[in-house]
Amino acid sequence: MQELIRNIAIIAHVDHGKTTLVDAMLKHAGVFRENEAITERVMDSNDLEKERGITILSKNLSVHHGRYKINIVDTPGHADFGGEVERVLTMVDSVLLLVDALDGPMPQTRFVLKKSLDLGLKPIVVINKIDRPGARADEVVDMVFDLFCELNANDEQLDFPIVYTSAKMGYAKLDMTSESTSMEPLFAVVESNVHPPKGDAKAPFQLLVTNIDYNDYIGRIATGKIYSGKVKTGETLALIKQNGAISKGRISKLLGYEGLKQVEIPEAVTGDIVTIAGFDDVGIGETLASAEAPEALPYVAIDEPTIS
Ligand code: GDP
């Protein structure tokens, strides 16, 4: 349900603990192990060879926590992929800005924070590694605040929520003096501070293609956020090129995220991030839309280096 979806990205300087934090969140939500079991069962009842194609390890992931579904989209780790960072950030409604409690903000922290602020996102600041000997969480918060100011954050952005974590030990807290043994406070802050994705659930379906990948079993796959309407597997959609050309095709597979894996889903709603197979000439920046009322989504082209 749209109201219960939260789309976020975790942005950080390398080594500040992004991977460890995601693992801690998955572990806390208990989805990892459980979903592995589900995937196994699904595979048992299907043609194993055919199904292998959809158990690709996704770059994005999804964590179910209580009634909420939190989609965490992956941001490229290298500053050179500037354009891609921006593109990915257009899918989310907030970012967790992860900063090492001893090292403080680093060049890449600045880079990704600037992109997020420029896009109008209101970050949640996560001070990680508070268990490190010599950690100076309060000082680092001040440094982060100064960085926000330097990057011309607006008042709303400056009023960022702060969560203190030890991703390694698996706990999060809202102030340094409190005690905590779990990641629960981080989830609470995400669920209450990040707004649900916007978009008209009753309007015709529209998805902006943000990423393209290729899979040996199912061909070219397109990932993006559903801006309006809903979609069912097997449905016929219109593919709208950036020059306005429209062609029609059928969804051969609709994939959602369960923990770290992509799994087939029967349908998806506004605000969710999904992957669609069946369109062999689909490209980044194009729109997949309702076949009856195809309308393109605006796409801001981003200059980026060609990676060969
Ligand atoms: P990434 O590059 O941002 O994905 O960082 P990783 O998650 O790979 O973490 C980098 C290193 O920092 C690893 O050696 C982690 O074990 C360590 N690390 C991550 N979180 C914490 C933490 O909360 N406390 C401490 N002491 N170390 C951590």
Secondary structure layout:
Elements: E1 5-12, H1 18-29, H2 31-44, H3 48-51, E2 57-65, E3 68-73, H4 82-89, E4 94-100, H5 107-118, E5 124-128, H6 137-150, H7 155-158, E6 162-166, E7 171-173, H8 184-193, E8 206-215, E9 219-228, E10 231-232, E11 236-240, E12 246-250, E13 253-264, E14 267-268, E15 273-277, E16 287-290
Bound molecules: guanosine-5'-diphosphate.
Description:
The protein is of the alpha+beta class and about 300 residues long. It contains 8 helices and 16 strands. The strands form 2 sheets. It has a 14-stranded mixed β-sheet with strand order 7-6-5-4-1-3-2-13-15-9-8-16-11-12, with helices on both faces. It has a two-stranded antiparallel ribbon with strand order 10-14. It is elongated, with a radius of gyration of 20 Å. Residues about 35-55 and about 305-308 have low confidence and may be disordered. It binds guanosine-5'-diphosphate (GDP). Guanosine-5'-diphosphate (GDP) binds near residues 19, 131 and 166. Guanosine-5'-diphosphate binds near residues 16, 20, 129, 132 and 166.
Bound molecules: guanosine-5'-diphosphate
Assess the beta-strand content as a share of residues: 25-35%
Q: Describe the largest sheet.
A: 14 strands, mixed
Kindly report the oligomeric state of this protein: single chain
Overall average pLDDT: 88
How many β-strand runs?
A: 16
Based on Cα principal axes, name the global outline: elongated
The helix count comes to 8
Q: Can you write the helix and strand succession as a string?
A: EHHHEEHEHEHHEEHEEEEEEEEE
Which stretches are low in confidence, meaning pLDDT under 50 for 5 or more residues running?
Answer: 33-57, 304-308
What is the strand arrangement across the widest sheet?
7-6-5-4-1-3-2-13-15-9-8-16-11-12
